[in-house]
Amino acid sequence: MDVPINHFKRAIKAGQVQFGLWVALADPGCAELCAGAGFDWLLLDAEHGPNDLRTLLAQLQAVAPYSSQPIVRLHVGDTHLIKQVLELGTQSLLIPMVETAEQAVSLVAAMQYPPAGVRGVGSVLARSSRWNRIPNYLKRAGEEMCLLVQIETRRGVENLRDIAAVPGVDGIFIGPADLSASMGHIGEMNHPDVLATIDRCIAAVRGAGKAPGILAFEDKLIRHYRQLGCLFIAVGADSILLSQAADRLAAKFE
Question: Total domain count for the chain?
Fold first, then answer.
């Protein structure tokens, strides 16, 4: 038994574009259904989705047999919460509302065991180490950890270059919804000022040698962001897919 390979991390490090799906319904059956579709990654959302540690564990177990790589988005970058989620077996985290390099440094530390970081040692109790069945897990786990930070405020944009320069930050995800609100254009993710800011952010992240990420549901925007160099792109969400399909079916029988 070995430390699981983080194929998502290796792909973005190699410059390979990864397409993903937001999974926000907090249901293992739904997560497994989406994993079977073959997306490169699935975002298990514990910021806006009704997830807790047990629902995240159930979904991680449900998608484990599939090639889709799970990424967990927490509601806050708390060191103790990060420790618990990593113990579930998560290797890739997306942390929202990162606004400073100091925040990014603390997040990097939370994902690594000492002396590189401050992650608490409890591998004998954890799924992450297969309950200490993985030899040398404590010394090797950090290699496969992937930290993605989310920039979605004016302050985050202002500090983007410093955040991107932090060692251990693997990718930077631009959150268009909150960014548009922070810029005074709430609900207008396609406002010209917002789109221009996103383009500049992507260029800055690429310039820092890190992987840019974005969420975009329109084919034109998806192509645009891919051409700009985005390496992980969310192209849909389970809740939207279900609601739109249900609306179309119901409309047939009105």
Answer: 1
Of the candidates 216, 148, 172, 177, the one whose C-alpha atom is nearest the C-alpha of residue 48 is 177
- What gap in Å lies between CA 43 and CA 34, rounded to an integer? 11
**58: in domain:** yes
For residue 30, what is the domain's CATH number?
A: 3.20.20.60
DSSP structure string for 14-53: TT--EEEEEE-S--HHHHHHHHTTT-SEEEEESSSS---H
Closest to 92 in 3D by CA, of 128, 124, 120, 55: 128
pLDDT digits (tens, 9 = 90+) for 140-191: 999 999 999 999 999 999 999 999 999 999 999 999 999 999 999 999 999 9
Q: Which domain holds residue 156?
A: 7-251
**What's the angle, vertex CA 170, arms to CA 165 and CA 174, rounded to 5?**
85
Residue 1 lies in a domain: no
Task: Give the pTM.
Answer: 0.96
Is 75 noted as a catalytic residue in this protein?
no
pLDDT in tens, 56-77: 999 999 999 999 999 999 999 9
pLDDT at 10: 98
pLDDT of residue 1: 86
Which among 7, 48, 75, 185 is annotated as catalytic?
Answer: 48
Kindly state the tokens that stand for 83: 């420790």
Q: Rg for the chain (alpha carbons), in Å?
A: 18
Q: Is residue 2 part of a domain?
A: no
Asked if the structure places residue 209 within a domain, the reply is: yes
Nearest to residue 195, comparing CAs of 164, 220, 163? 220
Distance CA 141, CA 74 (A): 20
pLDDT tens, residue by residue, 82-108: 999 999 999 999 999 999 999 999 999
